[in-house]
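To assess whether ligand presence alters the predicted conformation, the chain was also submitted together with zinc ion. Input:
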Amino acid sequence: MVLFSGTAGTGEAPRPEYVPAAGVVKSFGYDFEYNAASGTLEIRNNGSRALFVLGTNKVFINNNARFLQKKTVLKDGQFLIPADGVDIIIVYLARKRPSWQYANGVLTLRGESTRIRDLSRQKKFGPGSRNYPYDIQVIVIDPGHGGKDPGGIGYNDIEEKDIVLEVSREIKKELQKKYRGKEIIMTRDKDVFVSLEERGEIANRIKPEKNPIFISVHANVSFKLDASGYESYFLSLTPFDEVAREVAQVENSVLNFEIEDHNEYIKEIINRIVDIEYRRESAKLAEFIQNRLNGTAGPKTKDRGVKGAFFYVLRAAKMPAVLVEIGFVTNKEEALNMQRSDYQKKLAKGITEGIGDFITTFNRTEAFTK
Ligand SMILES: [Zn+2]
């Protein structure tokens, strides 16, 4: 197809589904390295790296995982990158707006060549604006339990499901006030039962490029009736040390091609790296929330810290995810506090501010790549 640029009526080349990686690196003159054994293609420019994994929708930008809508494929000996993968290369490696066209084997950028960093100061292309790639656009609030599942039952038969729903509603209200452009999703907004799988499904329906985050709100129980305080958990499939050990093992055995199913092995490891990536972001989110709760709930209760653990609901959500235990329903004083709307507002304010810190950091570090 021939492009008559500037000729009225002909329009521009349609956005292709895929672009050959060779076309991208040749057009821009980028360094690249294809590793047939692991099926990985690394494209480098100006100290930044994009690592595509063949047959998956994962791309690592300076070791941070992002997800593409389509998988990379090998066709007729060509490594094909889906269109949104090309967007990512342009945004992170060229630091330009992802506006491009591909025709006759050549990839060209459209329009002006202003750097994104400069553009980000303008209203048109800053955090919160449409098409800004480093923004948290959706926040999922997950009030624990509900319906037939009361959660923890505490002092005076106070039920966890009621308290966490109240606090979650407050969080939603606060977030809506603070962030008009963002979508706030509740996994339940009334006293109904929602399974853990459904909660994960609700979250995973959100497009990854909207950079969603997931906050599950719970209250604690203990046989020790004087136990009190709030804690934030971040999550992953496997205990931290185990994953760290396995990744280290891989680093040490990259050249061991004697492993029978090496590609499968590498894929498995890459899955785990993704897990680590969300763990890092999740741990940050947990830390921010915990710190802010300390400020708002402060002297009335106890800071029990940030912890890593396995929770099914967090495993289910493929995004940065935390679970906040806002206090103990089994502690008389805390249970009574948690029933009061002024205290619920304090908890919600702390959690909202923590989410705000995460959003600010995400914007500033361009999705933790800087
Ligand atoms: Zn719970």
